């Protein structure tokens, strides 16, 4: 999954693009369960710390 303009240059045919962090969170919330384990890889400049904070239970 790709979020942000910087990530778009690395996208392949199997990637999913999101126009905002909130759209990414909406998608993740439909896929994750209480037993899900995920790795959030990215920088603070792309807002991945925001994503991590919102996903915390």
Radius of gyration: 11 Å
> Tally of extended strands?
2
Structural class: mainly alpha
Looking at the structure, what is the overall shape?
Answer: globular
Q: Distance between the terminal alpha carbons, to the nearest Å?
A: 21 Å
Main sheet properties: 2 strands, parallel
Assembly category: single chain
Notes on the structure:
With 57 residues, this protein is mainly alpha-helical. The protein has one domain (2-55). It is built from three helices and two strands, in the order βαβαα. The chain has helices spanning 5-8, 21-31, 48-55, and strands at 2-3, 17-18. It has a two-stranded parallel ribbon with strand order 1-2. α2 runs parallel beside α3.
SSE map:
Blueprint: E1 2-3, H1 5-8, E2 17-18, H2 21-31, H3 48-55
Parallel strand pairs: 1-2
Helix pairs in contact: 2-3
Offer a quick outline of the entry.
The protein has 57 residues and is mainly alpha-helical. It contains three helices and two strands.
């Amino acid at each position: 999954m790709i979020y942000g303009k910087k990530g778009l240059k690395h996208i392949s045919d199997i990637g999913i693009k999101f126009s905002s962090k909130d759209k990414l969170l909406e998608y993740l919330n439909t896929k994750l369960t209480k037993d899900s384990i995920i790795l959030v890889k990215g920088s603070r400049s792309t807002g991945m710390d925001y994503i991590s904070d919102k996903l915390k239970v």
